[in-house]
Every structure is written in C-alpha cells, then in structure tokens.
Amino acid sequence: MADTKTFHLPDLGEGLPDATIVEWHVKEGDTVKLDAPLVSMETAKAVVDVPSPYTGKVVRLHGAAGDVIETGAALADFEPDPNAKQRAEAEPTGHHHGPKKSVGSPAPDSAKKVVASDEGGEVAEREDEGTVVGAMVSGNAVHVEQAASIGGVKAVPAVRALARKLKVDITRVRPSGAGGVVTLKDVKDAAATGSAPLGAAPARAAPAAAGRHPAPELAEPGPASAPARTPVSLAGKPVRTAPPSQQASGQPEQLKGVRRNMARVMAEAHASVVPTTLVDDADLHAWIGKQDITARLIRAIVAACKAVPALNAWFDGKNLSRTLHPHVDIGIAVDTDDGLFVPALRNADMLDGAGIRTAIQRLRAQVEDRTIPASELSGYTISLSNFGMFAGRYATPVVVPPCVAIVGAGKLSHDVVAVMGGIEVHRRLPISLTFDHRAATGGEAARFLKALLDDLARPN
C-alpha cells in the first residue's frame, strides 16, 4: 500500500485560527503536481490560493466549499509519487506554519495550540498576532458550514466580493456548486462571457404560444409548507402566545471570515478592556472654504497624540506594561457587507491633506476587492471610526487591545450656539473618545480630547 501523507491547513496569516474553503481546484482521485493550485481559502483578511505540498494522487479532501477548517486541521490526503521530486521537509511552502517553540519549560496542555505542518499538527505554544480587528486564537476542529444565502443566492463572501469587483450581477449567475452554491469559477465565467452584467434588465419568461395558456404551477406539499400568517386565530385570539418556532424565527447561520473574527475580537475586547468614554462637539464655524473632513480629523488626532502621547500607546494587561509610540499609525474602520475591516494608515503624522486622502482611497479600494495585505490590517497605534457618515451623534466605540484609545466622529449638524451678544448657528462635529482607563487617566483623556477639538476649530 502506498504511503499516505496528510496535509494540514497552515497558518495563512498572522495567527489566523481558521479559513473557509472557497473552491477546490482538484477532486479526489486527481493527480496533482507540486505547487499546483490545490484550494482557494478565505480568511478574515483575504482569499488565499493554497498550493499542493506534493506531487501525487489526491486521496481524500477534508471538507467542501463553505466548510470552515481550523488551522492545523487535516485539509487533504495524498499518495506522493515516489518517482517525482518532492519538497524537502525543511523547505518553505510559501505559507507561515506558526512560530518556533520558545526556549523554556513547555506550556500546560490547556494553553497549547495547534501549529500546522505538512506531516501533521505539531502541538506548540503560539503567540496571538494582529488581525482585521484585533487578536485571535487557534484550535484544531473542523466546523461544517454552508455558504450564506443572501438575496436568494448561495455564495461565500469571497465570491460576492469578486462579483462586485468584476461588475457581475451575482443574482443572474448560474450556480454550479453543490446545493446551488455560486463558485468563483461561475463568477469568472459570467464576467468572461458578459452573461450577467450589473444593471442589466432581469430575464423575462418566454411568452406562451398564441392560443395557449400555461398550466398553473402547484407547490409540492411537504413539511416546509406553512399556512399564511395572520395576527389572530380563527377564534379571534392572538395566534402566538409562545416563543417563535425555528421556522418562524429563521435558521441560524454560522459566521465566517471577517464577521467570525469580529465576533471573537469584540468579545475579547469587552472582557479585557476597562472602557470610559468622553464626548464633546468640535466647532467648525471658523473653517475657510470646503475642506476634507476626514483629513482634518486625522490631522487633529495626530495633534492630540503629540500633545498627550499616553493615548497613542499599546497596553499589555497581563504584564501591566505600556508602550508609547513616537509615530502615529491610525486604524481606519471600514464597514463592508462582509464585516468590519480596520486597515492602518501608516505614518499619519508625516502626511499632508492630499497624502492622507490618497492613502485612504488606496486602503478602501484594497478592502473592497479583498486585495489588502495582512500587514496593513494590524499594528495601528490608535483608531478612528467615522460612523457619522451614516447616522448617529455620539457613541461608545470599542477599544481593541493592545490599543489604548479610539476616536469616534458623529454626524455633522448645525446647532444654535450662544455667543457674546446673541446666538449664532454653527456647524459642529460630535466627537466621542473611548479609552482604556487601565492605561490612561481621565485627565489625560480630557486633555487629548481638548487638543483634538482645538485643532479641528482652526480655520484651515
């Protein structure tokens, strides 16, 4: 019997705990060459093509499109070709397989994590790294999940992102995946043939032949059929006096990718940070001409960081240590259909208004088409959430460790302001500052907020 090798999912980013299968490029029984495309995996950061670690026969695939595979879990089984050149055991595969073991006594079993290798999962302690909105943990289980059905279309977020990028109407794409799932190949084919362009009129049913009337379509009876809902019963009483059934409340849907990571990170932040929020309004009445509000916000944050460095810092709650940063890298919260991304605007303290705008546009474009490098999604020193672009005046933004503070900008308004000798109507921008009270005092936060407001109040 040929020797069988199991390929375990490597770490596709910086400490990412799992990835979702988007599309297999092989099937069981296929012969594949070393480094040929094996599978496309969606992480919380990007869609990654994983190459084959062997030349040989694919014996088994551990999962289908839509399944979530955790880092270190089995991904595929191979029968390597004994006559073909294989990768040396120590030769890199192009993907990070976890940090080396630290020197010293081993960690307790409960604290160990799985680090993937081509030969199997090696148990070792690994450090958490930065991700889309914070740090993540790892495991070694496989969760079977299905592509989300939105708007009547079953597809994973990566496929929807590709459809938006290629300007393909995903509702018009013919699915070829199991269970009617739209795959990456389906979207690429639709883009190549132009069969499903955005903005095209929906396809119409062919008219019936003259003199003929189509037979009515009858719904097949079954357990899924349900009577029409009404507010009262036949007796005139309220229909429901108990909690809704599963059918009435909808089916649970497993979170994937960015949203899955966001849920983990928000829970960790809530459990570890001691948040305190200050709010005030920036008076923009003195502004001269039309100005870029986001660029002014970033400039004001930089000014406040220079005035009060305590909030442009990282805090280590375990060791009770603080790192003050001489540079200002601002995490810009970007809301997408797939979830929350926080790319880092590097060296914001060195950029002028035009440089800030160019950098923001680049980051947003990379987020929208999911091409942003993993290195751009971590390591920021303070955050900005410009939620007022949609609605809301004040908020309590979440501080994600190791950062100490996050600034929230609300919706612009025109307010009546008392001035010497009467009243005036001024344009004002609501500002919310949430900080980790373990790392900064209330006085430091208040002085930071004042410096920010003062800069925003300047004419230009």
From TrEMBL:
Q: Where is the composition biased (Basic and acidic residues)?
A: 82-94
Family matches, as Pfam families: 2-oxoacid_dh, Biotin_lipoyl, E3_binding
Give start-end positions of Acidic residues composition bias.
119-129
Protein known as: Dihydrolipoamide acetyltransferase component of pyruvate dehydrogenase complex
Which residues belong to any copy of the Peripheral subunit-binding (PSBD) domain?
Answer: 154-191
Q: Required cofactors, per record?
A: (R)-lipoate
Q: Which domain of life is it from?
A: Bacteria
Q: State the InterPro entries in the record.
A: 2-oxoA_DH_lipoyl-BS, 2-oxoacid_DH_actylTfrase, 2-oxoacid_DH_E2_comp, Biotin_lipoyl, CAT-like_dom_sf, E3-bd_dom_sf, PSBD, Single_hybrid_motif
What organism, scientifically named, is this protein from? Answer: Fulvimonas soli
| Residue spans of biased composition, Low complexity class | 203-213
For this protein, the record's PANTHER family field holds:
DIHYDROLIPOAMIDE ACETYLTRANSFERASE COMPONENT OF PYRUVATE DEHYDROGENASE COMPLEX (PTHR43178)
